[in-house]
Design a protein that fits this description.
The protein is mainly β. The chain has one domain: PK beta-barrel domain-like (M1 Pyruvate Kinase, Domain 3), CATH 2.40.33. It has three helices and eleven strands. The strands form two sheets. It has a seven-stranded mixed beta barrel. The longest helix has 9 residues.
Amino acid sequence: MGKTGHVIAVCLSAEKGQPKRPVGTGWLVADSGLEGDAHAGTPRRQVSLLCLSSIEKMRAGGVAVGPGEMAENLTLDGCEGSDLPVGATIRLERGPVLEVTQIGKECHADCAIRRLVGDCVMPREGIFARVIVGGEVRPGDSFEVTHGEV
């Protein structure tokens, strides 16, 4: 059995580079991403993930930030970024399966999130994945991380 945890929030935005807003339910579409999100259809970064521990680091540094405000689609509890290396498989409770494709990203100089909160952890700790199997995802859903098993 791999690392387990649960989804804190499912978030989306219609524009890239903007904080995302929590939604009650999301639909992950195979080979596309989170339905209705600006990043859906991006080949390697279809879905963005952030562990709650990364948000807590920001809060400890005095930044009042919540789920989605770092532009992540899924906020996960029960993990650290090191638990989700490239190639890891994330199996969500309702059937969706994600494969981690990238850790961190290059941040644009005029990032709206950096302007709003003063920092952005996505370039350092953001996790990006592609959707292998689609399906519904909701806050509270459990997940399991395995390595090399799609």
